[in-house]
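Appendix B. One record, verbatim.
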Amino acid sequence: MPTRTDVPELNASLRLRVVFDDGVRLGPGKADLLGLIAEHGSIAAAGRAMKMSYKRAWMLVEEMNTAFQNPLVESSRGGSQGGGAHLTATGQEVLTAYRGMEQRLTEAASKELTFLTGLRVDVSGGK
């Protein structure tokens, strides 16, 4: 049985998933996608950064756009001017609210996360 001194540094984090009463979900994957769209200016590039197909990224964007009163992402087709995508003001507000909740929950649970991490053993086999 490994002792506490045999265990490498372990960390823990919370993963927030907002589930609305109609079944719509907003979780870490969609938040990351929004953040990467803001960073890259492209749904395709954001999807690639997440190792996700363009079709899947586009589907998630459409899902988010229809779930809120206003679209979260606006896109323009390619062509001679090039395409692109950006967060709308609502999209930025949703992402900011989500990241704020994540941060406040992690801070509020830091004592418990530290406690739980202290009880863990490394089950990865050193991987």
